[in-house]
Every structure is written in structure tokens, then in C-alpha cells.
Amino acid sequence: MADRTIAARRSSRRALIPALALACLSALAGCSTAPAARGTGDLGLIIERATGRAQIVDTTQHQRLATVSGLGDLSHASVVFSRDTRYAYVFGRDGGLTRIDLLSARITHRVVQAGNSIGGAISQDGRIVAAQNYEPGGIRLFDAATLKPLADIPAIGADGRRSKVVGLVDLPGQHFAASLFESGEIWLIDASDPAHPKVDKLAAGKQPYDALVTPDGRHYLAGLYGEDGLARVDLWQDPPAVRKVMSGYGRGETPLPVYKMPHLRGWAIAQGEAWLPAIGRHEVLVADTRDGWKENARVAVAGQPVFVMARPDGRQVWVNFAFPDNDTLQVIDTRSRRVVRTLKPCRGVLHMEFTPKGEEIWFSCRDDNRVEVYRTDTLTPVASLPADNPSGVFFTPRAYRFGM
Fold first, then answer.
1. Looking at the predicted structure, is the pLDDT value of residue 344 above 50?
2. Is the pLDDT score of 3 beyond 60?
3. How many Å apart are CA 204 and CA 67, to the nearest integer?
4. Distance of alpha carbon 17 from alpha carbon 229, whole angstroms
5. Geometric angle at alpha carbon 315, from 336 and 383, rounded to 5°
6. Percentage of the chain surpassing pLDDT 90?
7. How far apart are CA 105 and CA 264, in angstroms?
8. pLDDT-based confidence at 277, cuts 50/70/90?
9. Could you please report the per-residue DSSP string of 349-382?
10. Is 3 helix (H, G, I), strand (E, B) or coil?
């Protein structure tokens, strides 16, 4: 069955569901052919940014299954998944929001909902998709099954002006959180009634640029570009309030030019500690989440970190870097807090993604037109997939994590 499926994947859009439907019809007619059913838990998307396409990949077989075109400008694309992991929602930079059926490899719905978008989130129950926009600044809610608009939340801050929205995450209880870059605010959005969302607004600090939510959904943490430090909200506190943590971590030092904004996005919580990229410094910061988020340590790294991602078991943290060190990956052992391996796998290392239990890591090599797969125990390559200017790599188990 697997070989037949692989052979069927060699055209640019290959449908799996028609084969399944045909098999089912054959069975009804008395044929003994087993249905060509398959699960979706080991599927993923690789964004091909230059061509507006996405590859559907099988992470068990290290294979491309199909390619879906017509996704618009994917120069800063992100993806969330439905709770049954059958559908992927692709947020394009041009404001496009596209729903892809991973089994049939086709677009089921698509809307252009803004002029400049930076990503999105999906609600706890999987019924609401939220998009965060730069232009016009705001958050828009959509029905996850139809992409029909539910609500428009303009990001007008306390200064009376529209702000760019960053750091949008889903939270328990049909809530979302987001940050407003220019006005320096954190918004907590209750979407229990998605047509009439309620918003609590908190002052965060200067220029929040991205955010994460801890795996338990308790702490929302926004990185601040305009000052050294982060803004933290304990969402279990009543009422929630912002606390500054790690303030002045660069005090007395001259920051370096920032070539690429770091990303937070929830991957760097390991062993009760938060592993965070330092803005304009060649360092990863370590904070104790059990002790007021106080700084515990700093780890010197090869360049300005962009993604600082923890392996699912928390034993390793993988770091990639902004130009001119974007050909480098470093692996930090979280127990010793030491860099244990420096890799030079390819040019233009962008996004990384672990398999669900962390035995492998996939990362895009934008300038070498491929995606590499490495074992995380031996730190050696096991597969390479061709891709046209790949950027984001997203796997379906994200559906079961807050903030993904």
C-alpha cells in the first residue's frame, strides 16, 4: 500500500482521499482491497517561500507526499492545525489565510483577510482561527470550518493609534493573548462568544516583538525590543497583571546591530527553565520559571540567536542564528549548560522542528534548496529533501500544544 501511495505522489498535486474513496467503493462492491487509509499524526508542511507553495511531508518515511500551490506570499508564513490534524491553516504575509486538506492535498477554503499578516492561532476547541495583522493592525477571528469572518478587533492602543500585532497565542478557556508593538500593550481576548470578543488591555513595556505561552498555558511572556527585559503575565492571577522579568540583562553593554528579530514561540521551556534569545547579543539567557523567572545563567553562542528550541524531553536546546552566522546550528546540553556541538550543515538555516518525541530534528536550508533531517542523539544527518527556498517547517502534533 505504501509503495502504491508513493508512486501516486509524483505529480505536483496528488490526492490521497480519492484513492481512499475508490477503495471504499470497491469494498462495497465486494472487493477485498483494503482501504488506503492513513493517519495524519506524522504529517507536516514545508513552506516553499519563493513559489507560494507548501510540501506535505511524511515525517516517518522522510518523504514528500504532495505539493499545494496558490498560497500567495509566503515570505513570513506560519501554520496551525485543526484538532483532528487533517487540516492546516496557512497564514501568508499578504494577508492570505488558506485551509488545506492534508489527505486530499487540496485547498478547501481561502480568504485574503488583511494587507500584511504575520501569523495566527487556533482556539482551544479548534473552532476559531485567529489572524494577527500588521496592516491594518488588528486581530480577526474566523470560523475554522468555513473561514467565514466572526469578529474584527482593531489594534488601537492607549495612544489612539493602530499598532502592529505580534505574539498571538491561544490560551485555555477559549482565550487568546497578543501584543501590540507600537503601543506596548498585551491584550487578553476572551473569545467564548466569538462574535463579541472581550478584551483586557495591559501595559507591557517598549515594543513587544514576539511572545510565548508556557506549555501549561499559565504564563504569557513577551520579549521587549525597546528595552532589556521581558513582560510576563501570570494568567492564573486574578486579575492578571504584567510583571517585568530579567530587566536590564544588557546593562552596561553596547548591543550589536540586530540583523533578524529573534523568535520566542514557546519552544524554549526545558527542565523548569526558560531558554531565551538575547536581543543584539551572542547569548542565550536562562531563567528559572519556578523562582520568579530570575536569570540563572547565560550561555555564550556563535552569533545572534533567532530560534532557541528545546527538544521535547528538555535535554537539548538547539539554536540557529541571524546573518552572518546563519550557516550554523549549535546544540546546548541543558544539564551542563554548555554548547556540546557546533554544526555547519548548510547555508541559510531558518526554521527547525522536532518530531513529536524528539528523536529527529528537521530544519530548512533556504539557500541550498533543501530540508535536512538529523538524529538528535548522534547529531548526524539521516535524510535530505529537496525544496525550493524552504522556510517554515510545521508538524501536525502542534495541534495539541498551547501557543503553536
1. yes
2. no
3. 41
4. 49
5. 120
6. 74
7. 30
8. confident
9. EEEEEE-TTSSEEEEEEGGGTEEEEEETTT--EE
10. helix
Q: Tell me, what amino acid is at 97?
A: L
Task: Cell numbers for 268, please give them.
Answer: 524554549
Q: What is the pTM of this model?
A: 0.88
pLDDT tens across 28-79, in order?
444 445 557 899 999 999 999 999 999 999 999 999 999 999 999 998 899 9
- Which residue in the block uniquely carries the three cell numbers 557546533? 342
Using an 8 Å Cβ cutoff, are 320 and 349 in contact?
yes
Q: Grid coordinates 493592525 are at which residue? A: 137
Please choose, from the candidates 350, 311, 358, 352, the residue with its C-alpha nearest in 3D space to the C-alpha of residue 333.
311
* Cα 316 from chain centre: 19
Question: Do 134 and 113 form a contact (C-beta atoms < 8 A)?
Answer: no
- Cα Rg for the chain, rounded, in angstroms? 21
Residue with cell 489612539: 160
pLDDT digits (tens, 9 = 90+) for 210-223: 898 998 999 999 98
361, 354 Cβ separation under 8 angstroms: yes
What the block records as the C-alpha cell of 82 is 485543526
Chain CA centroid to CA 296, Å: 26
